[in-house]
Amino acid sequence: MSANESLMLALPKGRILGEVMPLVRRAGLEPEPAFDDPDSRQLRFATNRSEIGLIRVRSFDVATFVAFGAAQLGVAGNDVLMEFDYPEIYAPLDLKVGRCRLAVAEPREMVAGDDPARWSHVRVATKYPEITRRHFAARGVQAECIKLSGAMELAPRLGLCRRIVDLVSTGQTLKANGLVEVEHIADVSARLVVNRAALKTRPEEIGTWIERFREAVDGA
Amino acid sequence: MNDAPSKALLPAGLSDLLPPQAQHEAETVEALLASCRAHGYERVKPPLVEFEEGLAGGEATFDVGRSFRMMDPVSQRMMGVRADMTMQIARIATTRLAKAPRPVRLCYAGEVLRVQGTQLSPERQFCQVGAELIGAAQAAAGDAEVVLLAAEALNAIGITELSIDLTLPTLVPAVADGLGIADPVAGRLRAALDRKDAAAVAAIEDETKARGLFRALLAAAGPADRALAAIAKLKLPKPAAEEAKRLAEVVELIVAARPDLRLTVDPVENRGFEYHTGVTFTIFAQGVRGELGGGGRYLALGGAEGGEPATGFTLFTNVLLRALATPEAARRVFVPLEVARAEAARLRAEGWITVAGLMPAKDAAAEARRLGCGHVYRDGQVKTVG
Fold first, then answer.
1. Does B222 share its domain with B195?
2. Tally of structural domains, chain A
3. Do B48 and B111 form a contact (C-beta atoms < 8 A)?
4. A2 lies in a domain?
5. Residue B57 confidence (pLDDT)
6. Residue B1 within any structural domain of the chain
7. Which domain covers residue A129, as residue numbers?
8. C-beta of residue B165 within 8 angstroms of C-beta of residue B269
9. Which residue, among B200, B15, B41, has the nearest Cα to B105 in the 3D structure?
């Protein structure tokens, strides 16, 4: 591989992509038209700059692509970064979009009779088993995690388990499912992430992109 | 479906090295050690297993979590399989070689075993090659010597386009101390800096009197000349400023000796340098996933009170082999059964690898091809087989 090998930026599908794209464009990157075509099956996109390409993958996969150096740059929420805790990922810039929080929720009727200080073991449905385990372990509670990929809010209603750990933005989904937020775990926002080895071996190029995104965020 | 595991299955992270890779690894290790030897580093060979206090290097508990441990049925004490050889070399230098003139220059190569691999290198067993300079006072020349030696050894085996990241794991604690930041805030700050999580660093700074100092250190990381200039502009507490000055001296020496090396400086990097006490470094190569090795200044404990200043480097052959192309196959010649032994010996003396036929072969050329030989010995001559 030579120094002028092109860079790859991994973007997450779904929720935060719409908020991130204006920043990407302000940083001077315009993807090819297929990027905005919902019918396109393309996964990898060229941009107006020949030295950098884009891929669009699931939000958890952004972290994996960047950690292994398959993409040198990426956008990922700190929920994903906390869950994997990859030592090969740096998060040098808060993009200040995609804001929400990670919280523990339980059914409204449970809250009154529940004393968290007495727990020694809880069963939790979540997309974030590592964060959940760490959060509860820090206060001396063993968390048994049931890994789900979505629709966590259904789990308490259907008796899968009584508590969930999930992202909350407005709280509407929780409310609609009779759940209330009982503990705050972390504030979440999208971060620009970079691969460690790429930053060390190509500091000028990667540094320039971090600066462009910083200007895009400051100008927002 | 047959669910019984195959006999070929090895435990996770362990593997067989086959031809030609096994030979390639041995040659790579030998070439690395040859560079060390040429600079006056003498080879030592510690045992694979020793009492766990020896492996932990005195007070440091660094290796305890990643070594396989077992009880010695003879002494009834706990032993560990080495997960890193550096502390063994330091133990040798400070005990058995305590009377050897300082500084002591030692090099080594050996297999290490770890409880777990890492995400980028799942191998649990691999060969570590390195050199240690022990008993060298806090001289920048010593720090520069090991960095330059590591670079020279890597160049000698054909790894070029090196990128060396110089770090100072003592800097952030010194700055935090100077500002009166204590645990648990210091711990959270440390973790945020390790991830270069600018948002978390900013949030923690707001609780302290740091006034953007850590953010500035974080932003300073980059190409060495620029980073050092940025660090020089910061108002650091006195002990931290002295650390930074030493780093600048080391960079100057390295640049003077090898202006072609790409040097970066990262003033907040700490991971992997838990027991280090001064200038440290990590070696990357363009296009190679993960780090090739690293090293830096530490205290060799075990002998004299307070330990001896030491520095050194370590390379990991599993990563090196991934970075190197497999060498061209050696020149092998098939020698049919009827050829006299003396003639085969003469071929070997000429540098050929001879593969002897054990039974008369009807078609010697076909037999040569079947056995992976590019040549056959016929009518007193070495001939190429198509």
1. yes
2. 2
3. yes
4. no
5. 64
6. no
7. 100-187
8. yes
9. B41
Cβ within 8 Å, pair A201-B266: no
Q: Which residues of chain A have a Cβ shorter than 8 Å from any chain B Cβ?
A: 1-3, 5, 67-69, 78, 81, 86-94, 189, 191, 197, 199-204, 207
pLDDT of residue A144: 95
Q: Are residues B235 and B306 in the same domain?
A: no
Residues of chain B with Cβ-Cβ distance to A200 below 8 Å are 163, 165, 264, 266, 282, 284
Q: Are the beta carbons of B120 and A68 separated by less than 8 Å?
A: yes
* C-alpha B346, offset from chain centre: 40
Does B325 reach chain A within 8 Å, measured CB to CB?
Answer: no
| Domain boundary pick from B239, B262, B285 | B262
- Partner-chain contact B289 A69, CB within 8 Å: yes
Contact A93 B198 (CB under 8 A): yes
Q: Would you say A200 and B294 are in contact if contact means Cβ atoms under 8 Å apart?
A: no
Q: Pick the residue with more confidence: A170 or B302? A: A170
Contact A88 B199 (CB under 8 A): no
pLDDT digits (tens, 9 = 90+) for A100-140: 999 999 999 888 887 878 889 999 999 999 999 999 999 89
Structural domain range at position B348: 332-384
The residues with which B294 forms a beta bridge, in sequence order, are B282, B314
**Strand-pair partners of B133:** B105, B311
Instruction: Please check whether residue A1 lies inside any domain of the structure.
Output: no
